[in-house]
Design goal:
Elements lengths: L10 H5 L5 H14 L6 E5 L7 H4 L5 E6 L2 H13 L5 E4 L13 E6 L10 H14 E12 L1 H8 L3 E5 L3 E10 L2 E12 L2 E12 L3 H11 L2 E7 L12 E7 L1
Parallel strand pairs: 1-2, 1-4, 2-3, 4-5
Antiparallel strand pairs: 5-11, 6-7, 7-8, 8-9, 10-11
Length: about 250
């Protein structure tokens, strides 16, 4: 995986100012309480540096976390280990969820638009089928996507930049055939100099109609659909759509 290598070590600095993981976790756990989900087995897919994982793990007895980037997993493992929490970490593609486990899960999450990184529609279906197989009967799967509106209208072909004392980046986007190619150039301060590294990311803009047709096809049920983990109705300019599915 070419992305999230050097990026893993500065990821938290960038993302924590924009994402309230504690609020997301509180919403997810509230939904678990609403549906009487047993707090036994939890699986976090595309866990990244474990920011959501660590907010939820104390509520569950057994925890697994999966990511395709070994660099991100190393950061997540240290973070969770330092918190005195035991968890199992697996380096896997979320579209190939043959984990060879003797467990199924009461709660599975895949957050922060990780699902948009699935670029092929056939792999999107494989991903949901893999989740279906790993989910207990009456278990919950919570995931979110960057909306079609956000990826095509907000990110689209635009360029962004960020500048702080220790980090500068330039983020250039190119949209074609519902896929946004993102080129990021970073300059990270090390001592008295700045070191450059580059990242390439791609996300597919999925329309709600397609997502929901595949959900139905694989046998999962949508029990909630929210605007950015809040009790707000999804509208035409919603940027993050959160789905809660039940088996």
């Amino acid at each position: 995986m070419d992305c999230y290598k050097e990026f893993a070590h500065i990821y938290d600095e960038l993302i924590n100012s924009d994402i309230d993981y504690s609020a997301w976790a509180s919403k997810i756990l509230g939904i678990c309480s609403e549906y009487n989900i047993d707090r036994k087995n939890y699986l976090d897919l595309a866990c990244g540096t474990g920011n959501l994982t660590i907010e939820i793990v104390s509520e569950f007895k057994h925890i697994w976390a999966v990511d395709l980037s070994s660099d991100m997993l190393c950061v997540a493992e240290k973070k969770i280990r330092d918190a005195g929490i035991k968890a199992k970490f697996l380096c896997r593609d979320i579209c190939e969820l043959n984990l060879n486990l003797n467990n199924t899960f009461n709660l599975i999450t895949c957050c922060l638009d990780s699902t948009n990184y699935i670029l092929e529609e056939e792999n999107f279906k494989k991903y949901l089928l893999g989740v279906y197989d790993l989910l207990k009967e009456d278990g919950l799967f919570v995931f979110d996507v960057n909306s079609y509106y956000k990826l095509t209208k907000v990110l689209g072909n635009n360029t962004y930049n960020f500048d702080s004392d220790n980090l500068v980046y330039i983020w250039e986007n190119y949209l074609e055939n519902d896929i946004v190619e993102m080129s990021l150039t970073f300059f990270a301060k090390e001592g008295q100099v700045y070191r450059r590294f580059d990242e390439q990311h791609s996300e597919r803009a999925y329309k709600e109609e397609y997502i929901e047709s595949v959900i139905k096809e694989v046998g999962l049920e949508i029990i909630k659909k929210m605007d950015n983990y809040e009790d707000k109705i999804v509208c035409e300019n919603t940027e993050r759509i959160c789905y809660v599915l039940k088996k």
